[in-house]
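Example for tutorial group B:
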């Protein structure tokens, strides 16, 4: 089936992928394309915060562990900016290779709406989009 066309003419949800590993970036972008998303890639937390303040995204996929500002701090800063500026809350899913007990709760406590453990599969991206209904 054809991906939905947004009013602006672009297809599917706009996703900000925040990931510092080039291979993980490539794999995630390909999966996002397969489910009809338009991906913007940023490799660090500070630039991710700036991008969210500057542009509207339908979803942010935020890697937890990155050099400099990590994903959890970036999520906290995005949530603080949204509160200060009365911006619409962007759905954020934390992604991490550390699928340890308590990680999901840590991510949610930082302000994430959902959590994905790496490596994730196409079915998990589809399920994430379905759970975060404002994206579909």
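The residue assignment follows.
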């Amino acid at each position: 089936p054809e991906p939905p066309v947004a009013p602006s003419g672009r297809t599917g949800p706009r996703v900000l992928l925040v990931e510092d590993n080039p291979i993980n970036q490539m794999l995630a972008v390909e999966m996002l394309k397969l489910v009809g998303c338009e991906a913007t890639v940023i490799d660090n937390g500070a630039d991710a915060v700036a991008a969210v303040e500057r542009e509207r995204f339908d979803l942010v996929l935020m890697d937890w562990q990155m050099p400099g500002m990590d994903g959890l701090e970036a999520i906290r800063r995005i949530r603080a900016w949204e509160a200060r500026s009365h911006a619409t809350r962007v759905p954020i899913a934390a992604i991490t290779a550390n699928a340890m007990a308590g990680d999901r709760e840590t991510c949610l406590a930082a302000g994430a709406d959902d959590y994905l453990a790496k490596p994730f599969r196409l079915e998990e991206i589809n399920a994430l989009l379905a759970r975060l209904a404002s994206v579909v």
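The mean pLDDT is 88. Compare this with the pattern of hydrophobic and polar residues in the output above.
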